[in-house]
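Hey, sorry to bother you again with one of my protein questions. There's a protein on my desk that I can't quite get my head around. No rush at all, and the record is pasted right below.
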Amino acid sequence: MADNAGKINGKVFWKLIEQSLKSSNGNKDKQVQALKQALSAYSRTDLLTFITIYTDHIYRANQWHLWTASELINGKSDEDSFEQFRDWLVSKGQRTYQDALKEPETLVGLAKPGEALFPALRTLGRQVYIEKFQSKPPYQVRHKPKRRGVPYEGDPADKYPKLKSWLDQQTP
């Protein structure tokens, strides 16, 4: 069972994320369960690859312009909420992720005030590994990169007016 799922690489990573998103109809718990079920078919090596690719995407999104978008969407950001925002961003699939890296206002139509957080996704690969192999994955020494870009000192609504307008329409 473990070896018949193919090998995880960047393309397969995004396919797994997008299939879990599609099958969940936007429900985060269902997305976690769908992804967990899919990952359970993979080998140790592939699960480690999934964890590594996931971490790489989280690190790549460690950018000041996304911090500003997170502040606007979820309220005042701190390190934990910004990590959870980046988890949410990955959960939305490759195109959404890549578009938001370039321009956060592409999140218009997707982000809901205070709901662009997805902490359960961050540890999922590790949880599947532990459950399947009854051991923790080997520790990988990885240094968290410094946030890239330049911090925005003004009101996030001024930087992303389209996103702010969308969010205002979502608030009852």
